[in-house]
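anyone seen this seq b4? input:
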Amino acid sequence: MKSLLRVRTVILSDVHLGTPDCKVREVNHFLRHTRCAKLILNGDIIDGWQLRRGGSWTKAHTRFIRIVLKKLEKRDTEVVYLRGNHDDILSSFLPLDFENLRIVEDFVHESPRGRYLVLHGDVFDTVTKNFVFLAHLGDWGYRLLLKLNRVYNAWRAWRGQEYWSLSKAIKARVKEAVSHVSNFEDHIAQLARERGCTGVMCGHIHTAADKMIGDIHYLNSGDWVESLTAIVEHWDGRYELVDFADFVREYPLEPEEPAAEEAPADDATDAPPAESLHVEYGEPPAAAPEAPPPRDAAPEATPPAAAPKRPAMSGFTRPPAEARAAVRS
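predicted toks r here
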């Protein structure tokens, strides 16, 4: 069993933190078992639409943020966060640059294979861009479908069957949905071509892909609601679409995921334990303090103090009875 996947770049999109359908345990496990020089978060990482309606934010969602911040602080990882349509509140503040953290609309990723245009992709979704009300209505319908999907898969799990995505199956069988995906990919590829790039990385449509569209290398990182996929760039410039079902075979999921700040065993810090610091500098380790007595223990009985002895009077003799009688008379 390997402990870490070490690559040049990791690309994630459409995590949708703040929703009950986000597979946050799985994406946290994936991030904890990867090390990279650059982490690209390609839109819809936080679902602002759902959070406005109440949402479902848990400690595991906070753990995701902490894992990313730890990579930024302790692993010296460059993090690029791109705006999506569900976290479009960021549009008013872009671009932002905080040392190794950049928050942008789009950017060009330089790789050994050439220049790759990186963007979320919602700019080519006519409904999302021009008919916001319909976009929210469609999102509501999609969430309803995911809720039915949860109920259906709970029934499948009870019968001992594996997970099966109802919404993905419907999307794959509806002609209009297939046409929408195809048009989206063609438009994205054309934009990359116009920007003088050899490839493009996007998300948005929750359909993972790694293929050539003409002369453009098209990469879609999928999502962490249904697909559970990501794109990684190896150090030799090779790109790979990673499916979590395959990833978890090499890096098994723990029964209970550790806290975010806990790294895998072979990647722990080299700092010695506190006791070894004392030994190294010739100082004995401090003795452990005595444990206090239990509260309900009866106090020990104190023996009574012995009465002080009367000092002996040396040189004194009791006078005879005749002498005592004479004195009284």
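Confidence is low (pLDDT under 50) at residues 267-285, 312-316. The first helix runs from residue 24 to 32. kinda curious what u guys think
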